[in-house]
Amino acid sequence: MKKAISKILYYITKLTPKFDWIIIQTYPIWEDNGVAVYEYYKNTHKIIWLIPDKLEFIPFQINKNTIFLKRNSIRAIFYYIFSRYVFMTHGLYFRKFPKNQISVNLWHGMPLKRIGVEKGKSQLITNYTLSTSVYFNQILAEAFKISQNSILPIGLPRNVRLFTNREETLEKLKVSSTTKIIFWLPTYRKSVEGDVRIDGIDFGNVFNMPNFDTKQFCILLKELDIICYVKPHPMSVFHDIYDNERLKIINDTWLYKKKLTLYEALSVCDILITDISSVLVDFLLVNKPIIFAFPDKEAYIKSRGLATDSFLKNLPGPFCINQFEITKQLTEICNKQDNYLIQREKLKLIYHENENYLECIDNLNTILSIK
């Protein structure tokens, strides 16, 4: 029944005239690519932002041209049918969009692990798909089974938000300008929504590290004058907010309440800790230290697989499999020992076709001919 309804909607959309309205639908609800697109067009176009059943805190200023509608409501479908422009991260009512709409797959990060068709999903055929460089074009083409000619290596709109005003962001976080800030962003091992699956080994703690001693970690953070924000993947199991002086376990809603999105918060990040999250590709633009906490590498690769085998051979930071190694690397970095500066610069040139992140959405606007 769902496929039949989707097919009918596709042909209705294909036959109807279009207005210069813009549809945005992203996951998470305020994913930074969608927010960056919104900020660019909000004063010139009617924008219809499709949301889940519940509207969460809005972490940015909106204007009168904006309509928020539940994704599966009749009004949302009506506006969708007549909208000329569609920006999304995971598809919408169908996986192939009619040619009389200009559809853009923003996705939500350059793939380091297998995604799309390689993970059992169907094609996602849009007019355009964004990438940060030609390096990822073939990976994306294979993942979505699309032509490389439809992939634009102009960068991701959200990366401009990595350079948000530092003082304003620190004020929202209530953090001193002299304190170092870590963001620890692990990808999920056990997903509880969307594509429900288990990858690698779940070590049963938010850091996904074996035998992790949170008390000892907090002592280290205090000694090094660090505040660490741990944000689990939106699809992973999340138990509760943990908030003490040095360690804060947060989620998207926590950020939204502070009028922040993830990439705005990352603008004040001094050290990134992750495993195989695509955020590391974008973080290369700021050229700050990255630590890889990836104790289940072999198990993860076996169950999930990598988009490219070359990734782990050219890491732009130290590889850690336990808390002792994390402690060692953090101490060295805080003592101004950065052994991966040159490697990060080299990898940035590969992963980013256009280092001028400010030009991304201007270039996209020119290509789409949005007036």
Question: How would you portray this structure in words?
Answer:
The protein has 371 residues and is of the alpha/beta class. The chain has helices at 2-15, 32-41, 74-82, 134-144, 166-173, 214-223, 252-257, 262-266, 279-283, 297-303, 323-334, 341-351, 360-368, and strands spanning 19-25, 47-51, 66-70, 83-88, 102-105, 128-130, 151-152, 180-185, 226-230, 242-243, 247-249, 271-274, 290-293, 319-320. A seven-stranded parallel β-sheet has the order 3-2-1-4-5-6-7, with helices on both faces. β12 (271-274), α9 and β13 (290-293) form a beta-alpha-beta unit. It is globular and about 65 Å long. The protein starts with a helix and ends with a helix. The model has no long low-confidence stretch (mean pLDDT 91).
Describe the secondary structure blueprint for this structure.
Elements: H1 2-15, E1 19-25, H2 32-41, E2 47-51, E3 66-70, H3 74-82, E4 83-88, E5 102-105, E6 128-130, H4 134-144, E7 151-152, H5 166-173, E8 180-185, H6 214-223, E9 226-230, E10 242-243, E11 247-249, H7 252-257, H8 262-266, E12 271-274, H9 279-283, E13 290-293, H10 297-303, E14 319-320, H11 323-334, H12 341-351, H13 360-368
Parallel strand pairs: 1-2, 1-4, 2-3, 4-5, 5-6, 6-7, 8-9, 8-12, 9-11, 12-13, 13-14
Antiparallel strand pairs: 10-11
